Amino acid sequence: GACGVGALTGLINGASANGGPPVILFFLSGPSSAAVSRASLIAFFLFTDVLAALVYWGYGLMPGRVLWLTAVMLPCVGLGIWLGSRWFRRVDEARFRRVVLALLLLISLAGLLPSLLKAD
Fold first, then answer.
1. pLDDT of the residue at 75
2. Which one, of 43, 37, 1, 6, lies nearest residue 23 by Cα?
3. Residue 23 parent element (H or E)
4. Strand, helix or coil at 59?
5. Per-residue pLDDT of the chain (120 residues; tens, 9 = 90+)
């Protein structure tokens, strides 16, 4: 279970820097409440993002431009977190899971779109 999801997430993250979908599906399909699943995902992504940033920094892959873009985007990320937190407090558990899974599907399709539109 968890070890396989971790390995798949690591493989996808290493190959494409987009390892979120397997772990999101894992947490949302389990028996935990939506609040516990959400908190687990927040902790998971915080840990993996900090770890990845340290590794990238160590390899010299985070030039000043990346830090500048990060600083510019942080207020928007903060606004998204604030809006998402407000929505989460108002929505029932079943709807939360449906909306998150629908968003995950849309993100996955958006990731496939460039390769589907690419002319050979």
1. 95
2. 6
3. helix 20-29
4. coil
5. 889 999 998 888 888 778 888 899 999 888 999 999 999 999 999 998 888 889 888 999 888 898 899 899 999 999 999 999 999 999 999 999 999 999 988 988 887 888 788 766
Between the CA of residue 104 and those of 54, 59, 117, what are the distances in Å?
A: 27, 30, 20
75: Cβ contacts below 8 Å, ≥ 6 apart: none
Structure tokens, 95: 């709807």
Q: CB count, 10 Å around CB of 52?
A: 15
Report the C-alpha gap between 67 and 71 in whole angstroms: 6
Angle at 39 between CA 36 and CA 42, to 5 degrees: 150
State phi, psi for 60 to the nearest 5 degrees.
70, 25
* 29: nearest Cα among 40, 15, 43, 14: 40
